[in-house]
Specification:
By secondary structure, the protein is an alpha+beta fold. The chain has three domains: about 160 residues, BirA Bifunctional Protein, domain 2; about 100 residues, no CATH class; about 270 residues, no CATH class. About 50% of the residues lie in helices and about 10% in strands. It starts with a strand and ends in a 42-residue tail after the last helix.
Length: about 575
């Protein structure tokens, strides 16, 4: 059950007409009163003699009793309470009781207060009611409405329990601002699936992901086709910004601008600037790394950075973990922007879902997220992956590690009682699993065919190797559909001059494997990365001979990547 407080207004009769009217698309059915401050309140929906004016005068009587100079300009309070689609249809008396509980909880009409504000609850659909109130009490004073939205949400959680309704995940006030009813109706009239506020939030989020400076951020906003205004101080410093869609205009024909803070709490300019503390382009603060040579190499960087971040999320301090989680959102945004069409949809869905998980009341300690932010920047600078080499395999390798990282973020949020963030991270992980299956299909199929064609004696030798290195998991791994892809990878590891038993043991020790849906897939990507094998087996250039020394990796693995970790179980 979701209570929502709407903008305050000045015309009581205007809202009454809307509540009793047909709605914008004839969706209001049988509008009628279910509860009010006075049980004898006239109901224009059921009494043909009652009028909207009568109802308005009764509600506004305390306002009109005040001297004109003391009357509040915005005295109309409006709240809707909506049940979930899967909830049963509640009778009028249940909605009446719910309305009384909500006005009491918010401070509009505390229980037992005879001088409280006047209010009425109108039902014009099966699944919700609207409550209208005037913000002057019968004694002429104003109601105490501090944090009424949070109190309404808390009461809704109790109502859900009492009526056996679907339990809505409680929030913590860090979610992005939702579109208003007027914004939604405007989008519907124009045939748009999303409101300008939602489109702008996504565009700004994508523009800041991987950006290396303030000027680059504003250039990318303009490049995305947005109208951008900067608020500039007399000194010439930029204090803030607003953005608008070119086609979104008000009644006067002017563009409708939104500030960054009205889109999401972390999109205000001061909060965005925090990301550039320790800018990844400043060599004095960052270790020297080889230049990114293409999309596939950028995705290898993502895999490395995600592995380092995974260790931090498991063992780091809260502020540092929050920074890693926020930077993970940037990586997802840039990966979605630069990946090929067959994975892009699910990656975009994962990034959109994880946006909610990237914020909480734990303030991110920026400056500790260099590796992930640099990886996001590498993705942007390397450009689209389509037609640029190992997209499918390199993307699959990156997604494979990001699934673990996003799942670790969900686990951390759950431990902090961040219910909405944990749920969002779990949704993002599901979309990543879908994207992984698409990205990994072709490279794993090529490895599978190579493993199937391998001589039985060599297959048996690799099976014995797995039984020796992973005795408790070997039977499950060998029985998986991806077993032959792992066999082919072990063969390449050995052909490249590595000790497959050692690498296999290290790969399994890096993180718990038992709850992974496909352990063989996980091991394939870890082994290929550890042995610096081409992520796409079709690019393999290592001859099938043994004893050859491995070629030096273009990017040395950080020390944390070769240390066995004993993280808590994660389901992949």
């Amino acid at each position: 059950m979701i209570p929502r407080i709407h903008k305050r207004g000045s015309a009581t009769v205007g809202l009454i007409r809307y509540l009793y009217g047909p709605g914008t698309h004839e969706e209001h059915i049988d509008p009628h009163l279910v509860a009010a401050f006075d049980p004898l309140m006239p109901d224009p929906g059921r009494d043909p003699q009652a009028t909207y004016g009568q109802l308005q005068r009764l509600l506004d009587q305390p306002v009109n009793a005040l001297p004109a100079g003391r009357r509040p300009d915005k005295h109309v309070w409006h709240l809707s309470v909506r049940a979930s689609p899967e909830d049963p249809v509640l009778p009028d008396d249940a909605w009446a009781a719910i309305a009384r509980r909500v006005v009491a909880a918010t401070g509009i009409a505390p229980e037992g207060d005879d001088a409280a504000c006047r209010w009425a609850a109108v039902r014009h659909a099966d699944d919700h009611i609207h409550i209208i109130a005037t913000l002057v009490r019968d004694d002429g004073r104003r109601p105490r409405l501090h944090n009424e939205a949070r109190r309404a949400q808390a009461e809704a959680r109790l109502i859900e329990t009492d009526y056996g309704l679907r339990r809505v995940t409680p929030g913590d006030g860090t979610a992005a601002k939702r579109p208003t009813s007027a914004e939604r109706h405007k989008a519907e009239r124009r045939g748009r699936q999303r409101t300008p506020r939602e489109e702008l939030r996504e565009a700004v989020r994508r523009s800041v992901a991987g950006a290396g400076s303030e000027e680059e951020f504003f250039d990318r906003l303009a490049g995305a086709g947005l109208l951008v205004r900067r608020r500039v101080a007399p000194s010439g410093d930029t204090l803030g910004y607003t953005v608008a869609l070119p086609g979104d205009r008000n009644a006067k024909g002017q563009p409708v601008f939104y500030s960054g803070s009205k889109l999401a709490p972390d999109l205000s300019l001061p909060r965005i600037r925090e990301r550039w503390d320790g800018n990844p382009d400043r060599p004095a603060q960052q270790p020297t790394l080889p230049p990114v040579t293409g999309p596939a190499f950028a995705r290898r960087r993502v895999t490395s950075a995600a592995w380092q971040a995974l260790f931090v999320v498991d063992h780091g301090e809260n502020g540092v973990v929050a920074a890693q989680i926020a930077a993970t959102g940037e990586v997802l945004d840039t990966l979605a922007q630069t990946s090929a069409a067959h994975t892009r949809h699910e990656l975009q869905a994962a990034a959109a879902a994880f946006e909610r998980a990237s914020r909480s009341h734990v303030r991110a300690a920026r400056g500790h997220d260099h590796a992930l932010r640099r990886a996001a920047r590498d993705l942007v600078q390397s450009g689209p992956a389509l037609g640029q080499g190992e997209d499918g395999a390199a993307t699959a390798m990156a997604i494979d590690m990001l699934i673990f990282l996003v799942s670790a973020a969900a686990h951390w949020h759950a431990g902090k009682q961040h219910a909405q963030q944990a749920e969002a991270a779990h949704r993002a992980a599901e979309h990543l699993r879908m994207a992984y299956r698409t990205a990994a299909e072709r490279p794993l199929a090529a490895l599978h065919q190579r493993g199937v064609r391998m001589a039985p004696s060599r297959q048996h030798r690799h099976a014995a190797l797995v039984r020796k290195a992973l005795p408790e998991l070997a039977d499950r791994i060998i029985a998986e559909p991806g077993w032959h892809a792992l066999v082919a990878t072990l063969d390449e590891v050995q052909a490249a001059g590595h000790n497959p038993t050692t690498l296999l043991t290290e790969a399994a020790a890096r993180r718990e494997l038992g709850t992974a849906a496909h352990m063989s897939d996980v091991l394939v990507w870890r082994l290929r990365r550890s042995a610096d094998l081409p992520v796409d087996p079709r690019n393999l250039q290592v001859p099938p001979t043994y004893g050859k020394r491995p070629v030096a990796a273009p990017e040395p693995a950080p020390r944390s990547e070769i240390m066995p970790l004993n993280g808590s179980p994660r389901r992949r």
